[in-house]
Amino acid sequence: MSLINSNNSIENKIINYIGVLYIIPTPIGNLEDITQRALRVLSNVDLIAAENIKHTRFLLKNFNINAKLFVFHNYNEQQKVKLLIEKLLRGENIALVSNAGTPLINDPGYHLVRRCHEENINVVPLPGACAAITALVASGLPSNRFCYEGFLPTKSKARCDMLYNLSYESRTLIFYESPHRLIQSLNDIINIWGPERYIVLARELTKIWESLYGAPVNELLQWILKDKNRSKGEIVLIIQGCKTNINNNALSVEVIHTLTLLQQELSLKKAITLTASIHKIKKNTLYNYAISKLNT
Ligand code: SAM
After folding, report:
1. Are strands 20-23 and 94-97 parallel, antiparallel or unpaired?
2. Which tens digit of pLDDT belongs to each residue from 62-106?
3. CA 20 to 30 Å from 45, out of 37, 183, 207, 265?
4. Measuring from atom 19 of ligand 1, which residue has the nearest CA?
């Protein structure tokens, strides 16, 4: 077992009878964004559990770190947890890294950390790069209250259901998105939350083609459609929370879904009458909802 040679008080306090799991963020594009502490820990651990060996080897080579690597990705996480826990219990110090950014944030590691807690193995997190937080702080949208929702579902039905469920979320919303689905997702957002919802598209953060562009979603979509390069690369969407002050419990997701679908084919009046009759609720509640949505 190698001891981590550190000036850090947390690490010095750890009694190394059993190993320590270090959670190490790595750059999301710009290699300068790795911390001194991350490099020191990566140089000293017995093993680095990495999502992609080739990717991590490239990173380590850049900093002249020669370490033993262990493959640990989404497809084998559950099986590999057992092996890693055995090594930690034998006294090995292990660093967990993902391809980019903070492990566990839409990256593998949750089950491993969970098991470490069950086995009383120390988990030491290092702060560092994370695309969601990097985008949020530059977005100009409120950052005091926010919710991180990871990737929007790939299938349209699941994506729309998720958007319906978040209809009244008043905190700033953070999504990761693939360039291939960006246009479909923005169209779904327009259909469900209306054309005025303000969105900041943060692309290629910390890289050469880094860009941040914010606009109401319908304008953002038009802007993207003018130049396909505007939807390329790695993407974070930072979305303004819902401003409507309507009671979230007053209308269920199903009711809003029905009303939205009927409104696409019928006049507002007819859509409301039918929705009220299908779900046995007052027409007035639906009118209030429809009006508040127009003002959003
Ligand atoms: N663990 C990572 C983190 O801390 O941000 C996220 C991993 S997730 C598998 C990868 C997604 O993060 C990308 O598809 C993209 O949505 C977002 N992302 C990663 N790097 C980015 C960057 N440089 N600019 C914008 N988004 C990025």
Report:
1. parallel
2. 999 999 999 998 788 888 999 999 999 999 999 999 999 999 999
3. 207
4. 131
